[in-house]
Amino acid sequence: MTISDRDRKILWGNSGQRCAICRQRLVVDRGESDGESVVGDEAHIVARSPDGPRYRPMPPPEVDRYEYRILLCKVHHKVVDDQPREYPEERLQQIKRDHEAWVTERLSSDPTIRPVRLTVDPAARKPVLRRLTTGSEVWRTIVGCGSCRFDTPDEDERFSADHSDAADDFLDSARDYAQISDEIATDGGRAVREAKRELTARLTSLQKMDLDVFGGRRRLRLEGGIGEPLTWWESILLVLPQRDARIESVTLVPVDGPEGGFLVVHGEHG
Predict the structure, then answer these.
(1) How far apart are CA 45 and CA 88, in angstroms?
(2) pTM, rounded to two decimals
(3) What confidence score (pLDDT) does residue 50 get?
(4) Would you say 270 and 252 are in contact if contact means Cβ atoms under 8 Å apart?
(5) Dihedral sign for Cα atoms in the order 11, 16, 17, 21
(6) Which stretches within the chain are classed as H helix?
(7) What are phi and psi of 159, to 5 degrees?
(8) I want to staple 71 with a disulfide (CB 3.0 to 4.6 A). Which of 9, 10, 15, 228 is the partner?
């Protein structure tokens, strides 16, 4: 499990896109030739593993919820994890409450500041997903994105319960890698290669079940709060049953905005 897209939006919105300790902005503005850079971490208040900082036994899904995450810059994320006695669970929860109260006060005192929300970038094209055949292609699709949107078709005669389970296992693994991709990259090239190898192995297992994975990225806008709208990249992975004439790409139309699903409107054959 990782933090859900819903909890992620609540955390970033309530935190005003700022570190809960130093209150620095966690998105660096775009340059002349580059896009924005996200420099914040959705840090765990309680560690997942027994040897992690502030660990205590908790159900696995609960430790990833909004209630046990705090938005920090990368410097303070390392500090609180290196100094768990200085930053026990109770103190981090209080820091989080105080910071979110500060953000709420700032927002409420300025009626021109709108609530934080993600919207579809009107200038962005409809997402085109390419068939992914290697772990490297999956990695390039998911790394550096602020959120993930993964989907599978409804079960029918071509997409069985076994297909659903296999697809969910692959997508859960991809979501986990997306969540910790920065940490893996920090560990060096070998760690990245190992992640790509595992994703390749999982892709191969799906292909043996006559399933294809399509992937791409969608450009959204993070609006409201403090500051100008920002570009927010969302990775998209879609698992589909293989067809007699193999499809190399699909074009998708979002249904009901960024919170809805997708409608496949076109398939390009190889």
Answers:
(1) 8
(2) 0.61
(3) 86
(4) no
(5) negative
(6) 5-15, 60-63, 74-82, 89-108, 135-142, 161-179, 181-186, 189-208
(7) -135, 90
(8) 15
